[in-house]
Design goal:
The complex is a heterodimer of chains A (about 1100) and B (about 140). Chain A is an alpha+beta fold and about 1100 residues long. Chain A folds into six domains: about 190 residues, P-loop containing nucleotide triphosphate hydrolases (Rossmann fold, 3-Layer(aba) Sandwich), CATH 3.40.50; about 110 residues, no CATH class; about 140 residues, Immunoglobulins (Immunoglobulin-like); about 120 residues, Immunoglobulin-like (Sandwich), CATH 2.60.40.10; about 120 residues, Immunoglobulin-like, CATH 2.60.40; about 110 residues, Immunoglobulins (Immunoglobulin-like, Sandwich), CATH 2.60.40. Helix content of chain A is about 30%, strand content about 30%. In chain A, strands 6, 8, 10, 11, 12, 13, 15, 16 and 17 form a nine-stranded mixed beta sheet that branches. Chain A is flat. The C terminus of chain A is likely disordered. Chain B is α+β, with helices and mostly antiparallel strands and about 140 residues long. Chain B has one domain: Beta-Lactamase. Chain B contains three helices and five strands, in the order ββαβββαα. The radius of gyration of chain B is 14 Å and the shape is globular. Classes of the chains: A alpha+beta (about 1100), B alpha+beta (about 140). At the A-B interface, helix 11, helix 14 and helix 16 of A face helix 1 of B.
Chain lengths: ~1100, ~140
Amino acid sequence: MDAVEAGDWIAGRPLQLVFLSGLDPINKEHHKNVVSVFRHRSTEKPPLQIRVVSGELDIPPKRLEKASDRGILRRDWPLKYLEKVPALIVVFIDLDWNHPSWEEKKTEAESKVASVRASLRHGTKVALVLIQQKSTSVSDNVAADRAHELCQACSLQSKQLFIFSQESLLDTSKLELAFHELCQTFYQQRLKTIRSRSIPNNSPALVVRQQFKLAFLSELRQDTHTALRNYRLAYDQCKDTVEQWDGVDVFEWRSVVGLLNYKMCELCFLHSTPLEAINQMRRHTSIFFSSAPGIYPTPHLASIELLLWKSRQCYQFAQLFEKSVLSGLSALATLNPGTHLDQAAIIYSTANNEIAALKRNAPLNVPYPTPDPLSNSTNTVFFGQRPWRVNCEGLASAEVEAAAVTAITQRLVVNHEGVITLLSAALVQYQKYGCLRMRKKIMMEMANTCYANNDIQKALRYWGMVLKDCALPYSIRKDMMHRATWAAYAIASVQDFATCCIQLMCPAYSEVLPSNCVPCFFDMLNGIVPGLPFPNDDASNEQIQIYQSKWQQELHDGPKVFVVQASKVAELFLEVCVSFLENPTVEPNSKVPVRIEILSKIDTSICIKDVVVHLQSKKNSTEPIQPAENEPVIYDPLHLGSVEISREQPMQRVVMLDLGRAKQTYMATVTKVVVEMGKAIFGQIEFDENALNRNFHVENIVGVEYLKIGPEKTNAKLEKEVNIDCLIGEVTTTELIIRNTSKSSFHNLRLDFKRKEQKHAEAAAVLFVEEKGTELKSEFSFEICDKLLADAIVTFPLMVSAQLIGDYMLQLELNYETEDANQRIQKSSILEVGVTAKDPFTVTSSVLNMNGIPMTSMLNNCEHILNVSIQSTASIIISSVEFLMADVVTSIETTNGGSGNALNDDVNADEVICYSAAIRVLVKEDEPETPLGRMSVEWKRAAPDACTVRSVVPLCRIPVLACPISISSHIKTNPAIVRQPIEICFELTSHLKEVAELSINFDLNDVFMFSGERKVTFTLLPLSSRRITVVVMALSAGRLNFPKLSLKSAQVADQILQQALRTLPATIFVLVSLSYGGSEPTSLNI
Amino acid sequence: MLGVVGFFIYARENVRLFDSINPQYNQQTLDIEIFTFCSLDIVDEKSAKATEMFLGQLYTDQKWKSFGYITNTGVRMILVLDATSPASLKDQEIRLIFKRFHGYYCNTISNPFYQIGTPMQSKWLDEGIRDLYSSNN
């Protein structure tokens, strides 16, 4: 009945058949190796199917066409080329070129080839392979001659003779490629032969057959694109002639079309054109799925056969699709194998319905016909051929046809399992591609199929799973609920019927699906047989009797219980709202009121036997915690007793809960509310956390849904908020006033500062000075007093020194003991002290040259001025500064190294004070930046009793440029007086490791008269100095430009020399006369 | 026969705002409902990558085919057509239907008494549906 299966060959890709002859793997070891090498196939190797043959070749002769062969495609034709007719026969012979009996061996080879050739049909190619001990070199003339001789003798072309050396046994790739080439030639010849056959009257069957053969041989030739074209031509031929199909041959045509469609889709997927495959399947569906089923063998059977064929087509396509997905194709929600499996299942389900209808109408007590007309079903000649019509011209005899109809009818079975298998496969696919709604649809279909299969429990389970979804439209839900309720009623399942009833009692259902569920439910609870759930539905009296007797039996059998999990149904006629009438955070050990409200959506009042409220507290933490710490505190369930409720009369209760063992950071929640009801049948509706407060807006809930258990309220507080405003490093004293706000005394008060328990990192760096102590400590513990009476205060001086800037809180832990029933209880509370710490001053340092010009870089070996500006943030007194120079920096001032002691400089807030030092840098290696060192500043607040603080601040970092020639000047005449000779000495020092040629040129200036050599050229030895003295006479007094000179050297770049010259003073101050400037006149060079 | 089977509007969270099934197909309401429900899966998938409001064909089976449209605010519209109908609507015509209903939707939500997210009852949509089904015959 099913579409005829093509056979196993359709599953794999067709391979070129090659026979190996002349090998004796059993007796000869090297032959065995040859066989094993050839038999080892992989995807990289040519697509050959290699078989070792021995003895007589069994190649089928050419078949003569008979007039009685009416059919489209022979079932065994593809097998002919896959298993029987080889494309190539390879004859193996052990023969070396220098074999002593060459002639005899040659004759043997000739006879072997001739024997093989004699048994060949269909133009199979022959090749000869000589297995030799050693490999032959290319230049071996003897070998070439003998090879030619052998080819002549065996009538083979040179490309059909191969040498296979035992030394290169493993390398068969070249040989296999050569075999593949010969096979290609064979299939090409076969294609030509088949293409040249004329088709009388363009018979559709013959055209399809020819195109199929061409396509299949093209596949064997590995030309899949041509194969696809030929399959498509065959398919189009079927499509174009669908109207001409003989009514009795429709099944056969359909089988062929199915086969062609399968091959086309397979090749499309192979060519990585999945969209083409999907489109082909769509085309196939639109053309052939809607075609008329025909009337043979009977209209009903033809219709069933068409449905089964359609289902099979969808299934096969889904299989191909899935195979392609497994090979790397990415499918989508819109395009995935699931839709086709779903389609197959739906069609199969329809077929099942039709089969069931056929079975119902089939005459009973008709024996199965003998002989069996379907016995040949696996041995038919053509695809889709009717087994009882094998070897028949047209229809079989009327008796045989009638017997066939009877046999088919009797063999047909309703196969719900098949549908469920298809649906399960579709379900997996939809799950994979995230099609949640389609998944639900499949579950609905599974439920319907299970129901049809009389597996009602399973059906009810599936319905329950789908009905759980609130997003499902009521129109769909209504239908399922209707079926499920009937099913539960029919099998008298208390649990399922109660589940359905409590859902149907919702007003939303009662509007779209009127039912008698309320009285039914109450009757059931009271042990009375419930009436029909839907009285308007047609049900025969016999059926009603059966159902009611089942219920009678069920209720009579003993106590029954049902438990409904409210979270597993979308809605039900009761709603439970729970809340805590408290602040969101409560203290441990407190008693909290819990509010429970139960609303009914039905007018009829219902008697609830008991309401049990389950509560628990558990650790509320996102951090990983030890399991032992995570032990929830489960409270004893609260029983609210019996109550009667209705729509008008909801139940509202408030009960007190003692939080008891729940600790700080725990969270108290209502975990479950169980509503118990029923007399004869005991029912429980469990509202777990997901079902509680489900349909209530947060703003409509009185109180809070859960309670956080916070810290215990402390009774020891700071009298007023304390905020310490301090400078970094200074010790600030603040007075803390602690008040006992409780009604009892505190004992043994102790204040601790624990670095590790601070919220702020800056707070952890604060240092403390203990009372009368001189040491700075990172932690402290101080006994404040032994007893603090109720409402009394205690004062405590806190001395802190902040080390990091910012606004932060110090958390001080106050530990004390309280008396409770003659027992001391240790308690602690946190006191928070605010700190605002800032830097005492900001320091900026810069480097100037000797003329007071700021520099972005320094010259090595030259003198500079380091200028440090201190901007104070508060009123301070700087008592001393000290330059802590880096190793490479030398202070030129030799008296106290640039440091100043006992300065007593008053600096107000936001004022700036500068300190300078003359320095010289001596760097040996090139570095991008050189740190100049640090500066130590001793300061104190401008307030009485302030302590001195020593702050060390870093100086700037500055790049140091190399200066191979340094130059300095010295005015020997002191003071410089107008119209008097002034002797100036220039000293040039070389820092080079080589000799430097230098020439100095003095620039004449209008304000000076000059005496000496204007241009001096000299050689400066490595690391040596040279002094050049010139005498000038100033023509006017005052601040004059310093006599200029220019330097040139072949060894040093001009730019560097220019930089060196900038270290010279820019001006010279010349006095009018010796007596003008006072008693001790000096010349100044600034 | 253009084979218009029904028109559905869903809010961004797939809450149904409007539904209408051609009275000719009243016998198959359940099938159409399930089919439309499944089409929402494809809307969800396509909406993430949509470059225009019209989503094209969503889903098809032996009986029905659905087309989708998603507005800038995420409101989804689904048009269900009869897959077996001999005459079918062209792509441009389907786009026009959606565009027209988008306008009707905007008119409907412009009603100050309409509460966003609740089922829609408006003369605009009713007239639109009447026109749609009348052109069907």
